[in-house]
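Tutorial sheet, problem 5. The four components below are modelled jointly, 536 residues in total.
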Amino acid sequence: MSDNYQYELEFSVRDYECDLQGIVNNGVYLNYFEHARHTFLNSKNIDFAGLHAEGIDLVVSRIEIDYKFSLTSGDIFVVRLNIQKEGLLRLVFEEDIYKLPENKLVARAKVIGVGLKRGRPMRLDEIAGFKDLV
Amino acid sequence: MSDNYQYELEFSVRDYECDLQGIVNNGVYLNYFEHARHTFLNSKNIDFAGLHAEGIDLVVSRIEIDYKFSLTSGDIFVVRLNIQKEGLLRLVFEEDIYKLPENKLVARAKVIGVGLKRGRPMRLDEIAGFKDLV
Amino acid sequence: MSDNYQYELEFSVRDYECDLQGIVNNGVYLNYFEHARHTFLNSKNIDFAGLHAEGIDLVVSRIEIDYKFSLTSGDIFVVRLNIQKEGLLRLVFEEDIYKLPENKLVARAKVIGVGLKRGRPMRLDEIAGFKDLV
Amino acid sequence: MSDNYQYELEFSVRDYECDLQGIVNNGVYLNYFEHARHTFLNSKNIDFAGLHAEGIDLVVSRIEIDYKFSLTSGDIFVVRLNIQKEGLLRLVFEEDIYKLPENKLVARAKVIGVGLKRGRPMRLDEIAGFKDLV
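Model answer (structure tokens):
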């Protein structure tokens, strides 16, 4: 893993993720980014599904993505990410996709997440495990 | 609607549903079949999401699909369905997809559903609205 | 349709689009936005699949989305959009989702698209029908 | 890998694959089954995307699935498969999903595939690599 990232997860493109242009559909990248965030959170003992069962939902409030290059059938890639706090209420994930083995930058995203407790904004430091996260 | 079906719902293919072969991916047909079942159940005042909130889950136990012809970008089609009880525990949906306007048969499915109450099999006639369903 | 938009398309949430939080997954909004763009382009005689068959691909180079409010099972909504040229190479779509019937703003997106001809950037005015588009 | 299967591929459930019931949606299993088939074919030097580029499409003509048990957030599982020829025109895949580590049977499928050459049925032994497959 690059020194500049806190976490990475490797994927391979699945053929059903490609659309009629023969490339991974733009919406599928959000699946990749989400799965990387959730496995990262899990590695820090924060369980997205478990939180939901307690009435706490982590939801996305904003996403920016730059698509630089298209992934296609057979490609192997990693999502690498960093996380920062922004105030008491927001988490900012910077998530970059690199195609392997050449480490070519494919897409960059900035994803802002917030916590909702029974539907209302909550301080993220009320979530167990949060202090060790950032 | 054909006289031979209890319900039908019209769809159009969305480009993101097509895979790299330029045709609707085989898995997407299950989305079409599910959406038709749920809107049918809703028309009978049975709400899939509402039941889940009460601890009752309608789940699929078996699916058989014959794919006759491929849907592709720009196609308009209907899912037509019939429903029958099978004993006290099982619902059988027969769901057929026809491409419009020529009414060409595209796919036929038989979908068996069961009810779970907090994870255990339940008699379907315990579900409000069920008696009017079949 | 609002006077302030060039096009709108109505959708209803399909239950399979909701994730374990019971709300439409963040990635699914890109499906909605794409489908609205493609049906809009079609209404202007620009066919995404047909262009691909000729070696021309319209691809997304950047997306920004603000999620204001979550869609959930049973919701009806519209995607409303405007389109502008940006130089010779880029199309900018502004796409907003409103929940009906109350016209509540759910999400706003800015989607930048470019054209590729056999994989290389192309002037958009080389695409038949493009002049009538913007 | 069990002695009784020709191939297996490990997966983990991704949270976006779960629907509002908190379990993997029935349609997503077809994605798992397809990805296992394609990686198996790739291991035998048969490339689904490459064949499409040559005008040959492997398509599904029938699927039967029995869902025994639901996969959910955090689950690890394998798809195990066997393949047989049926005449000159059809491949039959038997694909079973087992949850790990307990090797609990989750779902069983039988998937029938055929080959199309420019849209017409073709003998599968015309496909390079096919002889080593079965």
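Marking note: Chain C has a mean pLDDT of 95. Full credit if you identified this.
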